[in-house]
């Protein structure tokens, strides 16, 4: 079990880049148990390490609120300058996953935003705040899995919908049609 005597969450997040499998999941669980997280005022199941005065806080909180609606407990992570980290740890029914948030408010930005996540984490949360062409969305997601050998999931929040797309789904023959029906 890692030593948290320093209580330095940035150092613990940096260790994630060197871990995989059970060790990675164990480290995620350990990070959520660090004393750095505080419950966000007025919220349930949303914990943060950043101040509500942070420029990213409102965007992160909005996505976190949606995640809580889908049954997740959310841990908003800091953004240390020296390492590339994800934005959230989501926990539901004992399963923990780490996600990089990409809020989409432009009509053709999904592909670029997904590329920004390559090498940062293997899971991306697309928070769609605009109507987005479903065919373009599906094509961008498929391309993301093609260019990132470590990518494992793209979670999409759009309105009251939550859609999880894994590598196997995105690379399947009927993926675009499936997305057209779900969106």
What do you see in this structure?
The chain has 183 residues and is an alpha/beta fold. It has seven helices and eight strands. The chain has helices at residues 9-15, 21-32, 57-69, 110-117, 134-147, 167-170, 175-182; strands at 38-39, 46-48, 73-76, 88-92, 95-104, 123-128, 153-158, 161-166. An eight-stranded mixed sheet has the order 1-2-3-4-5-6-7-8. Strand 2, helix 3 and strand 3 form a beta-alpha-beta unit. Helix 4 packs parallel to helix 5 (134-147) and helix 5 packs across helix 7 (175-182). The longest helix is centred in the last third of the chain and has 14 residues, at 134-147.
Set out the fold topology.
Layout: H1 9-15, H2 21-32, E1 38-39, E2 46-48, H3 57-69, E3 73-76, E4 88-92, E5 95-104, H4 110-117, E6 123-128, H5 134-147, E7 153-158, E8 161-166, H6 167-170, H7 175-182
Parallel strand pairs: 2-3, 5-6, 6-7
Antiparallel strand pairs: 1-2, 3-4, 4-5, 7-8
Helix pairs in contact: 4-5, 5-7
Shape field:
globular
Calculate the terminal CA-CA distance, rounded to whole Å: 42 Å
Tell me which oligomeric state these chains represent. Answer: single chain
Query: What portion of the residues fall into strands of 2 or more residues?
Result: 15-25%
User: Using DSSP, what is the number of strands?
Assistant: 8
Largest sheet: 8 strands, mixed
Report helical residue fraction: 25-40%
- Stretches where pLDDT falls below 50 for ≥5 residues? 1-6
Structural class: alpha/beta
Query: H/E order of the elements?
Result: HHEEHEEEHEHEEHH
Mind telling me the C-alpha Rg? 16 Å
């Amino acid at each position: 079990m890692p030593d948290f005597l320093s209580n330095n969450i940035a150092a613990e997040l940096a260790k994630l880049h060197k871990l995989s499998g059970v060790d990675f999941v164990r480290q995620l669980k350990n990070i959520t148990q660090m004393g750095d997280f505080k419950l966000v005022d007025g919220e349930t199941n949303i914990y943060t390490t950043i101040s509500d005065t942070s420029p990213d806080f409102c965007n992160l909180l909005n996505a976190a609120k949606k995640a809580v609606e889908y049954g997740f407990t959310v841990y908003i992570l800091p953004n240390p300058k020296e390492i590339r980290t994800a934005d959230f740890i989501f926990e539901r029914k004992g399963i923990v996953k780490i996600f990089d948030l990409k809020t989409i408010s432009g009509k053709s930005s999904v592909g670029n935003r997904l590329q920004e996540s390559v090498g940062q984490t293997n899971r991306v949360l697309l928070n769609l705040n605009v109507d987005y062409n479903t065919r373009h969305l599906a094509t961008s997601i498929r391309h993301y899995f093609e260019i990132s050998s470590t990518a494992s999931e793209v979670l999409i929040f759009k309105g009251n919908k939550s859609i999880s797309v894994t590598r196997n789904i995105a690379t399947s023959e009927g993926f675009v049609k499936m997305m057209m029906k779900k969106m």
